[in-house]
Amino acid sequence: MTRNFIFVFILLATLTIINAIPLHKRATSFGPCPNVQDTFTVTMSPDPLISPHLTTITIAGEETSGRIINPLASLVITIGDVVPVQPPSVSPVCNSTDCPGSKVAQTVTFLLNATLPPSYQIVLSVGNINTSSPQMEFINDEILACALATVP
């Protein structure tokens, strides 16, 4: 009887511990950036980010503020907290012959090879890049559309 009681106790304790372990990863949730009117939807693979790993980010959306995306527009992906963990990934949103106007649809693949801190932000910004600036800043610091996620 005592052995049965001990066996049942160990079995219940084991099941309780196993049930407490999360078996699924949480998906990263993107929202609008502060002080930017337009945003877009974002899908990311892998989600959550893994380093080092090839990362694919796809954005899609439409500007509602009436600003038009032109050939200077670029998608800038910044990952980090106060300081980026690696240089931002920059890719053009369109080329000179095929600009989307007010719609944005872009897929970017880049190598994330930096060590990720326990908590960080992922900022995806679309704006007109000042090509003469070594820091790849936006012209007039104007961001056309933006999405932000905080990973705890």
UniProtKB/TrEMBL annotation:
Residues 1-20 form the signal peptide. Keywords: Signal. It comes from the Eukaryota. This is Phosphatidylglycerol/phosphatidylinositol transfer protein. It comes from Gigaspora margarita. The lineage of its organism: Eukaryota, Fungi, Fungi incertae sedis, Mucoromycota, Glomeromycotina.
